[in-house]
Amino acid sequence: MASAPMSEANPVPATAAADGDDVLLRVENVVKYFPVKGTGPFREKEYVHAVDGVSLTVPRGQTFGVVGETGCGKSTLARCIARLHDVTSGRIVFDGQDITKLSQRRMRPLRQEIQMIFQDPIGSLNPRRRVGSIIGDPFAIHNLASGAERKRRVQELMERVGLNPEHYNRFPAEFSGGQRQRIGVARALAFRPKLIICDEPVSALDVSIQAQVINLLADLQADLGLTYVFIAHDLSVVRHVSNSIAVMYLGKVTEIAPAEQLFTAPRHPYTGALLSAVPVPDPDLSDQRQQIILAGDVPSPIAPPSGCRFHPRCPKAAPVCVAEDPPLEPRLGDGPEHPAACHLPMAEGEKLSDFRPSISAEERVLAVEGSLLPDDAGTGVTDSAGALPARREGGQP
Amino acid sequence: MALLEVEDLKVSFNTADGVVQAVRGVSYHIDAGQTLGIVGESGSGKSVSTQTIMGLTRGARISGRALFEGRDLLTASPDQMRAVRGSQIGMIFQDPLSSLHPYYKVGWQIVEMIRLHDHEISKDKAMERAVELLRLVGIPQPDRRVNDYPHQFSGGMRQRAMIAMAMALNPALLIADEPTTALDVTVQAQVLRVISRMQEIFGTAVILITHDLGVIAEVVDEVLVMYGGKVMERADRRTLFYASHHPYTEGLLQSMPAYGGERERLRPIAGQPPSLLSPPPGCPFAPRCIYVMDRCKTMPALDPVDGDPGHLSACWLPHTQADREAVRRRVAHVELARSAGPAGA
């Protein structure tokens, strides 16, 4: 099923450093496969297609959002960009320089310019070390400051991210969740990086604290001219912080658009379904809108579906979607800033619930007998409560 | 009569650091067939309060009453509680993988649940019911999937299986503690739809505990807002979102990125949630509140707002619309002047 990764010919456009000054990061056709132990009689080698041909351009000084569900490859992509994983194929061009094949030693100075912030602030802080020394690590590793000078710079950073510099000698456990995330931010800021990759930076935080951290990131961006790649599964957060957003599904980018456009005029049915699934904190809005509930689960990334990877769950799926992988390009007269990988993009005002897939049942995700898409889409809840106790009425059983 | 009536529930735990007062006098009620949302941040006491009612907080110091169909669950014997748990009150938790036993087949676990409470039913009949339940919650090919182990199910399917198990004995009340927090949004939408359809089919009352105001807006009838182990506000869904009274509720709503419209700077609630180790007397939200007054040192009662008995708020702010607006305008003015100065974190 899975072809060996390197055999896939990925025509890489010969852009070289023709980006000019406004592009900080260019991801070209990046593929990352992880080998897994094969099953079956011959134990053929199989691969998890974690990231499968992703191309992005991140402009300098902006926030580029990446959204998608568990297993769509967004975190693997982040790690590829930061060179924490080596890519299987493709190129990563940072600040005009191809960093894809740089050796660890040549990569090291660049690590000052690309930093990461992770989801779990406690998991990324050593519980037995003091905060001052954790934030001071970058200075120690890169041999840039020591002694009193290092302490001064660490305390500056702590103040910058809204921590009390006097807490220099405390342990991570003495801080709350939001403060721990600030520690992570302070450490990432140590060298005035050009690019910060934020991998679910606020997902573990309560909503009131989440807002504090989002505002902090926004302030830092304004003051220091940072560029963010902001990865999250919470669409309203991503919309709030991003200039443009890429939607990923099963290792591929399905759509890229300026933040507003993605929400007002999504082209890819997956984007449409994803947006409609987000619970809206506004009773009137949530009563009005029609939810598209997708059937089934995301297929296995070991043997992804043919053609468009979303076709087994797509309400608009047609035979062409099974046969051909749609290229990521502008659809329905959109500008170059809004490409979508869909053969049958959604027009404005179009309702996904009006569509039925025109592909055979075997090619669709297994739905529970009968209707798949209209009202009961995907829940498959039936009213035939045959073998079950009767409905209770009123107060007493 | 309310299906469940909780009166002045207090729960505290002895820890090495001292006594943690997790729940500090919570009262609420839920009627048959109703959906009550309990919303609050980590440490607000929202989960502990329902776990205590179910008799799941071992070693806690508990006071108050929890009348379920007229019987006090807090004074019930362990045997009596076992009869209630599962059969009359079902429960689902955040992490379905740790709620299912990895060693037993999913169908077997549902059958065990049924036969534990229903001694008459035959094994075959119970299995038939398990299949029917799995079909009901939308598991494809339920007659085959009953023989799967939990690890063969996806996250969303496990949570469906938990719902099937919780509904197996047609309970009068289902307590769902963050049922969708670990799930992706599209799966969350599936699971929430399953819960509300099960509610339609069986007429079950649901207590939905969540930190996500979006989920609240989508599914509940009434909402309880908890903070620092106390109830801050109770209102129906619409009132909470469009005419909330308590400053904490207001702060929560403003902290969230708007779904549509202008992308304004978020307005977080300053500071941290209180420690419940030795909470100061008075309103727990006072240290973070922009309207804080001297009298906040004593805890206000949960009183009706604008004379509406369905809308209760524990805040000293005036409980009539006109007076409240005057206070808000005054505070907004001060806030504006403050934010014009050097910005604090």
Describe the protein in words.
The complex is a heterodimer of chains A (397) and B (345). Chain A is an alpha/beta fold. Chain A has a domain at 127-191. Chain A contains eleven helices and twelve strands. Chain A has helices at 74-81, 104-111, 131-141, 147-160, 177-189, 207-224, 235-241, 259-264, 269-277, 283-288, 319-323; strands at residues 23-36, 46-59, 63-67, 89-94, 97-98, 114-117, 195-199, 227-232, 244-249, 252-258, 329-330, 339-340. In chain A, helix 3 (131-141) runs parallel beside helix 5 and helix 5 packs parallel to helix 6 (207-224). Mean pLDDT of chain A is 83; it is low at 1-18 and 366-386. Chain B folds into two domains: 4-224, P-loop containing nucleotide triphosphate hydrolases (Rossmann fold, 3-Layer(aba) Sandwich), CATH 3.40.50.300; 229-261 and 276-340, no CATH class. In chain B, 35% of the residues lie in helices and 22% in strands. Chain B has helices at residues 46-53, 78-84, 96-99, 106-117, 123-136, 142-145, 155-167, 185-202, 213-219, 237-242, 247-255, 321-340, and strands at residues 4-15, 18-30, 35-39, 61-68, 71-72, 89-92, 173-177, 205-210, 222-227, 230-236, 303-305, 308-313. In chain B, the strands form two sheets. In chain B, strands 6-7-8-3-9-10-12-11 form an eight-stranded mixed sheet, with helices on both faces. Chain B has a four-stranded antiparallel sheet with strand order 2-1-4-5. The interface between A and B is large, with 69 and 77 residues.
